């Protein structure tokens, strides 16, 4: 049987996610392409690797054996790249980073600009993911670095403090909430929201509403925090954005900023890696830069 590295990475992504759909996303493959690869792997080995059910997939005994060997092989590949990278002269390198919405929009532009300007031979492949997906992807070797909320399960990942991300409510200054007192998320659910069009942060907020047995009432979906703040200031509805974005926009608007009391609204972000010794020299340098806050 012949499996390539993409096969092994995909298989581990599916195992870690417990789902072919989410595993394909984490591996950067379409669902049809991922499904075909998995079928080909089973056909090549004449063995069943996954038991497919309505709630996801589980490993067979053969699948357990493959997962063990796949992790070993990918770990050895990471070590090889790291050791060879020490001898490379003048070659371009790419560091793959997965981060949540707040990190990408509010913190990383300045920090990445500093580091990339000092490392002209290094590129960064940056992708937005939810924190739980980031943890799985870094653990499986799909990303060298991750920036995630410490509220999620991170297993044996190595974590370093990165930033504190506070979510706040933005509304027009004449709104009933604009009295300066903190509010609970549950108290907002009767109102109409200006929401993000997509992204990990909006998924996180939507998940909190679902936990309360409801969904957000949406008036409009926008692609930027500035757009949400602008609409909120005009009285269109309320929005939830990072505090740093709200304070930046308030300098030129009439929005009110209201603190959310819910524990999930204050997220302590960390930069994470699987093992420092596995990192290539550029990835190790970026990890240290981000952990130091620039």
Question: What keywords describe this structure?
Answer:
3 domains, Arc Repressor Mutant, subunit A, alpha/beta, D-Maltodextrin-Binding Protein, domain 2, 294 residues, 7-stranded mixed β-sheet, globular, 44% helix, two-stranded antiparallel ribbon
Write a brief caption for the model.
This protein has 294 residues and is of the alpha/beta class. The chain is 44% helix and 24% strand. The chain has 3 domains: 5-85, Arc Repressor Mutant, subunit A, CATH 1.10.10; 93-163 and 267-291, 3-Layer(aba) Sandwich (D-Maltodextrin-Binding Protein, domain 2); 166-265, D-Maltodextrin-Binding Protein, domain 2 (3-Layer(aba) Sandwich).
Structure, described:
This protein has 10 helices and 11 strands. With 294 residues, the protein is an alpha/beta fold. The chain folds into 3 domains: 81 residues, Winged helix-like DNA-binding domain superfamily/Winged helix DNA-binding domain (Arc Repressor Mutant, subunit A); 96 residues, D-Maltodextrin-Binding Protein, domain 2 (3-Layer(aba) Sandwich); 100 residues, 3-Layer(aba) Sandwich (D-Maltodextrin-Binding Protein, domain 2), CATH 3.40.190. The strands form 3 sheets. Strands 3, 4, 5, 6, 9, 10 and 11 form a 7-stranded mixed beta sheet that branches. It has a two-stranded antiparallel sheet with strand order 1-2. It has a two-stranded parallel ribbon with strand order 7-8. The chain starts with a helix and ends with a helix. The model has no long low-confidence stretch (mean pLDDT 90). Keywords: DNA-binding, Transcription, Transcription regulation. Belongs to the LysR transcriptional regulatory family.
């Amino acid at each position: 049987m012949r499996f390539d590295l993409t096969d092994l990475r995909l298989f581990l992504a599916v195992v870690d996610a417990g789902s072919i759909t989410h595993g394909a996303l984490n591996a950067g493959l379409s669902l049809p392409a991922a499904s075909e690869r998995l079928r080909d792997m089973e056909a090549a080995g004449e063995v069943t690797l996954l038991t497919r059910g309505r709630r996801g997939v589980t490993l067979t005994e053969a699948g357990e054996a493959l997962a063990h060997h796949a992790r070993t092989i990918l770990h050895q590949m990471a070590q090889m790249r790291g050791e060879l990278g020490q001898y490379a002269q003048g070659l371009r390198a790419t560091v793959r980073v997965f981060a949540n919405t707040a990190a990408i929009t509010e913190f990383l532009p300045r920090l990445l600009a500093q580091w990339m300007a000092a490392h002209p031979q290094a590129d960064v492949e940056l992708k937005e993911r939810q924190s739980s997906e980031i943890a799985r992807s870094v653990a499986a070797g799909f990303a060298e670095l991750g920036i995630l909320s410490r509220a999620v399960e991170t297993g044996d990942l190595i974590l370093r403090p990165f930033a504190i991300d506070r979510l706040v409510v933005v509304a027009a200054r004449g709104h009933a909430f604009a009295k300066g007192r903190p509010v609970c998320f549950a108290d907002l659910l009767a109102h109409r929201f200006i929401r993000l069009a997509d992204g990990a942060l909006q998924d996180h907020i939507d998940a909190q509403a679902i936990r309360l047995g409801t969904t957000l009432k949406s008036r409009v979906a926008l692609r930027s925090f500035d757009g949400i703040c602008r609409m909120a200031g005009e009285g269109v509805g309320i929005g939830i954005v990072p505090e740093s974005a709200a304070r930046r926009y308030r300098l030129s608007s009439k929005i009110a900023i209201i603190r959310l009391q819910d524990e999930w609204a204050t997220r302590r972000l960390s930069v994470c890696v699987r093992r420092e010794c596995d990192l290539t020299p550029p990835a190790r340098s970026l990890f240290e830069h981000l952990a130091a806050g620039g």
